[in-house]
């Protein structure tokens, strides 16, 4: 062994002795960043809760009018797209359709189109979105149609199977205003609904 | 700054565009929609609603039914192969006409069975009979004695069956009433070409004079829906199929209120909280006229205020109303092409 070889071995030993015992620190890698996108397909049930007649119901004079037997449990489905503004917040749009049945077996349908702002909380392979949405809604029963607005708040729990796909459950609370002026002003009401369902989310 | 301005403009536009061109409110309609009726009258055309003061009867299709709690019992036809074509009530009795295409016979209801009596047997069963109206405790019957020729009878419910006028009319009679002085006989036809087929009013004082059309200043270029007499104000009310309500004390000078382009027909007087209302059936729901107001106040089928109660009839707006009956329980029946409704002023329910 010549001098050169001895120098290399001593250097390697020095490196080994100085790094022995030090812990390797792990860094948490944010799963998404600005520009990441998601696409969700959702399906579930819609539960008609109650309507609020701010001026009192024209017949009963009550403000709180539960839907109860007047509107059945219904179904809902939606498509949502979102893009990450940073590693937590997303902004996107959603198109939803829901239906339920009245006592006379007329179909009540709601078709909201909303802009959604969502905060996503991540832990392990799970994520919890907290959503706020607002937009337009087509509100229809029998031959009556109302073009109005809608506000949604919601949350869910997703398990990310891999980097691309996540499955989860989600729930959203809808407030659907129906505002009138003039002769029908006492028909102004705010419909309240709860949407519960399953969701499949694709990250790209 | 420009971004906020655009956002505000978009929000304002959204609110302004929120609309429902055909009120009422959707959540309101859902909240007042009655349950589907499971009664025997569901989806049947109810042509007549009458009462003997205790029970309610309807002519639905070609069958007479009696109200039995929440449902209706069928009254068996008096003879196999006959169908009910007419129903009326006078002096707390129920009367009908059953026909089989070759003959038609008038009957009185005894309990749950139809019977005849020597008085009404005087009507010739080989002729077509129709019960066309009532007034002053009299029932009016139109008898087609030959093709295109009609006699009008009055019946007091017991032993007096009288032919009004010895001569016949050569136009179908559709309704009649009596105001304690004169008989008002209405003929109507959908044609307006004049001659013998035009709508007409005959005022008859019971004398032996022949029939004479006497419509006063009523314009006979419109088909007549019905006539009713209100003893409270002494006025006759006449509805037309071109949307007008006419009123007169004598049948000569008429004043009218227009309800638009609705085809108006059956009427009845409804008394509530000291006020009389004229209930008017149409080809799309019904109207209420407040007879205490001057000029008389009409409310539409889409909104109604009686006293301090407000309700909106929505589904009923699509239905043709054949018959209206105000009953003694502060409510009224509406017989439509699609079942029977009952209103107690706060709600409108299918019966």
Account of the protein in words:
The complex is a heterodimer of chains A (204) and B (351). Chain A has 204 residues and is mainly beta. Chain A contains one helix and nine strands, in the order H-E-E-E-E-E-E-E-E-E. Chain A has an eight-stranded antiparallel beta barrel with strand order 1-3-4-5-6-7-8-9. Chain A is elongated and about 105 Å long. Chain B is mainly beta. In chain B, 7% of the residues lie in helices and 48% in strands. In chain B, strands 1-2-3-4 form a four-stranded antiparallel beta sheet, with no helix packed on it. A four-stranded antiparallel beta sheet of chain B has the order 5-6-7-8, with no helix packed on it. The longest helix of chain B has 16 residues, at 2-17. Chain A binds chain B through residues 51, 53, 57-59, 65, 67, 69-71, 102-106, 108, 136, 139-149, 177-180, 183-184, 187-189, 191, and chain B through 14-15, 17-36, 303, 309-312, 315, 346-347.
List the helices and strands and how they pair.
The complex is a heterodimer of chains A (204) and B (351).
Chain A: H1 3-19, E1 37-52, E2 64-66, E3 74-84, E4 89-101, E5 107-123, E6 126-141, E7 144-160, E8 165-178, E9 189-203
Antiparallel strand pairs in A: 1-2, 1-3, 1-9, 3-4, 4-5, 5-6, 6-7, 7-8, 8-9
Chain B: H1 2-17, H2 26-32, E1 46-51, E2 56-60, E3 63-68, E4 71-75, E5 83-90, E6 93-99, E7 104-110, E8 113-115, E9 128-135, E10 138-146, E11 149-155, E12 161-169, E13 173-178, E14 183-187, E15 200-204, E16 224-230, E17 235-240, E18 244-248, E19 255-258, E20 264-272, E21 275-282, E22 286-290, E23 297-299, E24 304-306, E25 309-311, E26 321-326, E27 332-336, E28 339-343, E29 348-350
Antiparallel strand pairs in B: 1-2, 2-3, 3-4, 5-6, 6-7, 7-8, 9-10, 10-11, 11-12, 13-14, 14-15, 16-17, 17-18, 18-19, 20-21, 21-22, 22-23, 24-25, 26-27, 27-28, 28-29
């Amino acid at each position: 062994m010549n001098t050169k070889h001895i120098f290399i071995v001593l250097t390697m030993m020095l490196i080994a002795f100085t790094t022995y015992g030090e812990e390797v620190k792990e860094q948490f890698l944010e799963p998404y960043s600005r520009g990441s996108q998601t696409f969700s397909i959702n399906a579930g049930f819609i539960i008609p809760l109650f309507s609020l007649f701010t001026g009192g119901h024209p017949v009963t004079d009550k403000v709180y009018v539960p839907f109860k037997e007047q509107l059945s449990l219904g179904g809902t489905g939606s498509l949502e797209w979102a893009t990450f503004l940073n590693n937590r917040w997303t902004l996107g749009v959603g198109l939803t359709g829901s239906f339920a049945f009245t006592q006379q077996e007329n179909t009540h349908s709601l078709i909201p189109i909303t802009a959604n702002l969502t905060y996503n909380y991540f832990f392990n392979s799970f994520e919890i979105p907290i959503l706020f949405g607002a937009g337009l809604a087509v509100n229809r029963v029998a031959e009556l149609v109302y073009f109005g607005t809608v506000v949604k708040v919601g949350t869910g729990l997703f398990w990310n199977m891999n980097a691309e796909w996540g499955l989860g459950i989600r729930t959203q609370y809808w407030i659907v205003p129906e505002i009138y002026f003039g002769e029908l002003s006492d028909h102004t009401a705010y419909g309240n609904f709860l949407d519960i369902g399953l969701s499949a989310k694709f990250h790209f | 700054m420009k971004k906020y301005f655009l956002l505000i403009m978009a929000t304002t536009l959204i609110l302004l565009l929120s609309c429902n061109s055909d009120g009422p409110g959707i959540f309101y309609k859902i909240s007042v929609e009655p349950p589907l009726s499971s009664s025997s009258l569901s989806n049947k055309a109810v042509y007549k609603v009458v009462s003997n003061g205790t029970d309610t009867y309807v002519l639905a299709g070609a069958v007479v039914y009696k109200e039995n709690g929440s449902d209706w019992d069928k009254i068996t036809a008096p003879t196999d192969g006959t169908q009910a074509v007419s129903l009326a009530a006078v002096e707390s009795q129920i009367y009908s006409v059953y026909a089989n295409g070759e003959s038609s016979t008038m009957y009185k209801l005894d309990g749950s069975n139809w019977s005849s009596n020597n008085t009404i047997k005087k009507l010739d069963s080989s002729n077509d009979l129709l019960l066309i109206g009532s007034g002053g405790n009299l029932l009016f019957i139109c008898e087609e004695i030959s093709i295109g020729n009609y006699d009008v009878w009055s019946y007091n419910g017991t032993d007096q069956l009288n032919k009004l006028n010895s001569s016949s009319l050569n136009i179908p009679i559709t309704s009649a009433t009596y105001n304690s002085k004169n008989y008002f006989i209405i003929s109507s036809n959908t044609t307006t070409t004049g001659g013998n087929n035009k709508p007409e009013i005959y005022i008859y004082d019971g004398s032996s004079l022949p029939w004479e059309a006497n419509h006063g200043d009523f314009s006979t270029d419109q088909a007549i829906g019905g006539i009713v007499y209100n003893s409270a104000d002494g006025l006759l009310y006449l509805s037309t199929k071109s949307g007008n309500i006419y009123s007169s004390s004598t049948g000569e000078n008429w004043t009218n209120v227009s309800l638009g382009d609705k085809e108006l027909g059956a009427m009845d007087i409804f008394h509530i909280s000291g006020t009389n209302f004229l209930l008017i059936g149409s080809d799309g729901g019904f109207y209420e006229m407040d007879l205490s107001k001057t000029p008389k106040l009409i409310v539409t089928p889409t909104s109604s205020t009686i006293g301090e109660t407000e309700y909106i009839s929505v589904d009923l707006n699509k239905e043709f109303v054949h018959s209206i009956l105000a009953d003694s329980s502060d409510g009224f029946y509406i017989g439509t092409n699609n079942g029977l409704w009952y209103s107690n002023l706060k709600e409108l329910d299918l019966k």
